[in-house]
Amino acid sequence: MSSMNMAVRSLTRRKTRTILSISGIIVGVTMILVLLSLSSGTSASTTNLLRSAVTAQITVTNSSTPTLGGLGGFTRPSGGNFGSGGFSGGNFNFTRGGTSGGFASFFGASDTIPQSDSNTIEGLSGVYAVSPQLSASGYVDNSSVLLYGINPSSFSQATTGLSISNGTMITTTGQIVLNNVIADNLGVTVGDTVVLSNNTLSTTNTGANYTVVGIFNAGSTFGPESRSAYIELSDVQSITNKTGVVTEIDVKTTNPSLVHKVVSEIESSLSGVTASTGSSVASEVSLSASLAIFFIVIGGVALLAGGFGVTNTMIMSINERTREIGTLRAIGAQKSQVLRIFFSESLLIGALGAAAGAILGIIISLILPYFSSSISSSGAFGGLLGGRLATSLVASNILLSMGLGVLVGVLAGIYPALRASRMKPEEALRYVQ
Amino acid sequence: MSSELVQVTDLERNYKRGKFKIAALNAIDLTVKKGEIVGIVGPSGSGKTTLLNVIGGLGKPTGGHIAVDGEDLSELADKDLTHFRLHKVGFIFQFYNLISTLSAIENVEVPMTLAGVPKPEREKRARELLAIVGMEQRMNHLPSQLSGGEQQRVAVARALANRPPIILGDEPTGDLDSKSAKKLMELIRNLRKDTKTTFILVTHDPIVVEGCDRVYSIRDGKITKEFTQTDINHFKMSQGKDSLEELLV
Question: Rounded to the nearest 5°, which phi and psi values hold at B77?
Fold first, then answer.
């Protein structure tokens, strides 16, 4: 009949009170686990959503290339799916400079970096996509353009891609996507063939034929982007005789919170490059963090309420058992032994409540997404998550919620257990209910 | 070694109620020999229970001396008093005070658990004790499944668990019918005979008084009279059936 055995007897033979005490912890642990699962699920959903919706978060350029510096960068043609808010535009466009000095950089003034740097960056942890680009001046049907050489597949992963209004994105060499302003000026459309050259056409410079596969919309009619065209990276490298180099590498991370870590890893693993980030990163990180804090606060309040419930029932139990405590002390139980008995009880309540709460929390977390599809897609989170709550069960969240449950049970038991152990046996024996 | 198990000299116990000092016990002198059954009688509030608590190490005296089985209780710290209660004293209460969530045998085991007696040994002794008090057949019953008399028998077995030299009873028959009270007193007298255990019983009950070797009468915190068994018998013989009630008032 150890302290723990006495505690077990007390709990199993006072079932109603035990269930009441435990239920407080169960509710708290269940709520905190479900909310943590929602937080993780939402975080994963928003990360995926943000990853596809926003452009690259990091731009790697030669460290001698002029960066933004208040040059009033233009908005990338593709823009952002979040409209004109924090997610709009890319950050990497800033590195190309603005309307005056920046423009010069497009026409060959940009310093380049080795294309192999993109392989190094791809190998870093937390990197989701890497898109090397080489920008240069060129001519389409004798009309000057800004040529962007890209790798089509990595470009669409690392950026929001182009806003193609007609046709498709390029998929291989020999294809070109034109800005709608140039296409209108030249009077070409999807399926036409254009001649691309690095200089004006002449008898010695006859250029090469490219098939127009798509027309994209520019951000503005007069900005530098209105004169842009996209072709395969190797095509630009071949036209400009810059094989194996690029002007910039766009990098997207697996999670917005990793941007700063990845930036410092890039800069430490590559020499002569600058990795810059844009303002949207802060917004992305802050959105994820706010959601997590929101859910944790609600869960914490629930657990706190559960803790007060346990304290309350434990104190009531001690009042009911004053005479029993007096008896134990009278027949020779030391204060520490009484403390152990009552502490064991609250530890058991915490542990049982945590276990049951975790099981219930896991079940609810698993079934919640199936019952939440009716949530209006116009709701705050519904809109963000496509009208369905996303949950993600993570072992650390289960352990955290269980740990908190046990902790609350133990903390809730400390005061009542101390109170019980400090009772004077003579007075406790005289206690009449 | 002296045959006196309890030696109380000039004992005082005062309480403070705000600014007022209340003397619960005042200049108490008494002795109890080994193997005696001693009664303490007196009206409510006279200090009977306070005296019993001081002898049992539940309360500390504010003056005088008290020695039980050679230990001066006024010198002991709280922890040592608890140790004293565990090994030197057994308690029987008016309302039995069994732990409601434990069975009869588990209740008897509690003092031995507190004393660190290994499980097989304490189970064996608990069974023996329950057999002595005639409760062997009901050892797995919870207190709520036992009658008052049966609960008090289990409480006696619990009090005997660590083989204390003295058992203190505070109105042990106070909640029992006269038949159960007589059986309990018979048990106590048998235990005294077989185990040489000393009993001090605070009581109002003539049945208990009849079973005592000596009786102290206490009033306003002072011992006013002391009766021997001869005195008790004399009262009964000379003044009739109701005389004991007069003696106890």
Answer: -75, 170
Size of interface A-B (CB pairs under 8 A): 72
| Residues of A whose CB is below 8 A from B93 | 327, 429
| B54-97 per-position pLDDT tens digit | 999 998 899 999 999 988 998 899 899 999 999 999 999 988 99
**Contact with chain B for residue A333, Cβ under 8 A:** yes
Q: Are B99 and A425 a contacting pair at CB < 8 A?
A: no
Mean pLDDT of B20-43: 91
Cβ-Cβ contacts under 8 Å for A324 (sequence gap 6 or more): B97, B99, B100
- The pairing of beta strand B198-202 with beta strand B166-170: parallel
- The verdict on B53 touching A (C-beta cutoff 8 Å) is yes
Chain A nearest C-alpha distance from B238 (Å): 38
Cα gap A211→A206, rounded to integer Å:
16
From CA A377, how far away is CA A31, in angstroms rounded?
23
Residue in A8, A12, A14, A327 to test binding to B, most B beta-carbons within 10 Å: A327
Does B100 lie at the interface with A, CB-CB under 8 angstroms? Answer: yes
Task: Please give the Cα distance from A332 to A13 (Å, whole number).
Answer: 24
Classify the C-alpha dihedral A189-A193-A194-A198 as positive or negative: positive
3-state secondary structure B128-148: HHHHHCCCHHHCCCCHHHCCH
Within 8 A by CB and 6+ apart from B159, the residues are A331, B90, B91, B92, B167
Q: Does A340 touch chain B (CB under 8 A)?
A: no
| pLDDT in the model for residue A316 | 78
pLDDT band per the 50, 70, 90 thresholds, residue A288: low
Q: How far apart are CA A305 and CA A299, in angstroms?
A: 10
Structural domains in chain B?
4-248 (3.40.50.300)
Question: pLDDT, tens digit, for every residue of A358-375?
Answer: 999 999 988 888 776 655
